[in-house]
Every structure is written in structure tokens, then in C-alpha cells.
Amino acid sequence: MLSIRPEIPLKNYLLNLTNKQDRKECGVYVHNLHSIIQDIWRQILAAKGDDVPWQTIIEKLGIHPQGFYAYKNGKKGISILMLYKLLRIWQKNCKKSTEEFDDKWAECYHREVLFGSHKGGYTRLPKSVTPRLSYLIGWICGDGNFGSYGNHYLIKISEKCTRQLKEVLIPLIEKIFCIKPKFYHIFEGGYALHVNSKPLFRFFQQVLKVKVGKIPAIVLSFDSTNKAYFLAGIFDSEGYVSKNRYLITISQSSKKFLVTLLHIFNELGIAMNGPIIHKTKLGTWYTIYSDKKREIKRFAEVVNSYHVEKQIKLQHMLAKMEIV
Predict the structure, then answer these.
(1) Alpha-carbon dihedral of residues 22, 176, 143, 270, nearest 10 degrees?
(2) Within-domain flag for 246
(3) Structural domain ending residue among the three candidates 94, 121, 148
(4) How far is CA 125 from the centre of its chain?
(5) Per-residue pLDDT averaged across 192-213, rounded?
(6) pTM exceeds cut of 0.90
């Protein structure tokens, strides 16, 4: 069972979901902030003075009044950049301090909201890192894929074991983000999950700074529990449990990636060996490993596996150790 504690709060990341190239109807939208918008608008109208038409204020936002009232009445989500612009107008017209602006911006962040694009596709984004999310970050860093083109923002997870995708990863993504990945048979013996979501894509890339084959800086600040789940995610995506030997391995094309993993393992009191290099016609890759009973036991106690097949293999290996 993947834990939900301890939690590591994330700083207000709303602006991190935006992009310099975002234009009208192209950004990330926030839903369920209409009560805040209504309150702000009432204050702006009360402070504007009789000589200033309300239409003049809406013109500063660069939208049609009908569009603004859709935001205000909750019929449509508001883009993050539009929300920020509206708050700046509120701050100026109502003579609010920087502290009051920051408090209102924080209130927007901490509301229970959904994120989407102009065309919909709602998802929930967490306000904190939990072991569940740490595990998923590890999996994606180990063997995920990001791709964006046109209006498509794709997160892809490949895996040969369909049970792992259907019984672990799909429910995990649904619990964290309230979005269901699509399941594909991509080639003989291979399967994948696809999530097409601009908010989620930007959350991983621009908030968490997740890149495949690299250790995100945020992971280095995790507590020991979240680091352990992160390592479990990497192991379940890129690890191997031997059937005939006392041996567990993690392989990657990046030596630097594995060297950083070794440091994290050491922090948790687990000694792994390597990296050792492998060269074939298909390319070059590296491996870290443990073939010591004591270290494999320590790995199982602290990190473990949540892979439906690898977990069973690891338990069989531990059982053999007790018999011998």
C-alpha cells in the first residue's frame, strides 16, 4: 500500500503553470474561484467612483464583458494569467498593500480547485508531495516520456506488465490527479499509459522540474520516507530482481543519474555497488547493483517494491535467504 504521509507542502506554484508564450485562451485555467472573483469585483465597483464606467475596468483585462461574467458566475474557469491581472487591478483600484495582494493570491492557491485548458480536460493538482507522488515521480524519471505538439501535452508511461499499469499506476494517477490515463497496446509485449493534460504536463515539468533520466532537485530535499518511495518508483520502472542469484539491479543510460541514486541510497543506509558500464551494438548503459544479503534485506525494509511481479520475486529471494 502506497502511503499518503508524510506530506511536504509545495509553495504557491500557480504562476509556474504559466508560460511566456501563453496568449488568450491558451493558458492553464482554474475552476471554482468564482466566489473570490465576485468579492474582488464588488470591492472594485465600490472603489471605482461614479465617473469611471465598469466597462472601462473590464477593458483593462482585454476580454468581452460576457467572458468576464462567465468567470464571475462560475460558468467558465479563469486563466491563471487573467486571474493574476484581475488581482493587480483590484490591488491598484482598492489601494491594497503588497501583503494584502499576497494573502489574496495565497487564498486562490489554497482553494479546492480544478485545473484545465480552454477546451476542458479537468484535473486536480496536489498542494504537497506525498509518498504516492514521490513514487510516481521516481517511475517517470526512470522510464517515462514527455511530449508536446500543437494542443497535445502528453505524459507517457510504458510497461510490459499490464497488471502493474491497471492495478497500480492507473489507480494511483486517478487518486492523485482525478484523471484517468488511457491504456494502449503499443507493440508486441508492450503497453503504455497516456495522459494528455496541459496542467499536469506543466505541473511535472515546470513545478516539480521532472525530467526523464535526471534526478529532480526537489527530490534531494525530501524526507527519508519520500526519498524511499522515489527510489521504489525508479526500481519498479528500471530495476531487476534475479531469479537465480541474490542480486537486484537498476540500469540507466545516464551514469550521472545512477551516481546520484547511489548517494540517496547511502543516505538511507543502503550500500549499492557501481555504476558498471555495459556496451553492446544497441548502445551503452550503466548499472548499480547489490548482491549482498544484508543490503538486499535493508533495501526490502526501507525501499521495497510495489510492482506486482518484482515484489513477489523480491519476497521469494528474501525467503530463500532465511532458509539458507
Answers:
(1) 130
(2) yes
(3) 121
(4) 8
(5) 96
(6) yes
Q: How many domains is the chain partitioned into structurally?
A: 2
C-alpha neighbours within 13 Å on the C-beta side of residue 240: 13
C-beta of residue 249 within 8 angstroms of C-beta of residue 287: yes
Q: What share of the chain is helix, strand, coil (3-state, %, to 5)?
A: 50, 20, 30
Domain boundary among 84, 103, 121: 121
Contacts of 320 (CB under 8 A, 6+ apart): 246
CA angle 208, 306, 112 (to 5 degrees): 40
d(CA 61, CA 14): 19
List of residues 6+ apart from 139 with CB closer than 8 A: 157, 169, 233, 234, 236, 237
CA 46 to centroid of chain Cα atoms = 41
Residue 24 confidence (pLDDT): 66
Report residue 109's pLDDT band, with 50, 70 and 90 as the boundaries.
very high
User: pLDDT tens-digit profile of 18-32?
Assistant: 998 787 667 999 999
Please tell me the total number of residues recorded for the chain in this structure: 324
Residue 246, pLDDT score: 97
Percent of the chain predicted with pLDDT > 70 = 99
Identify the domain containing residue 46 by its residue range: 24-121
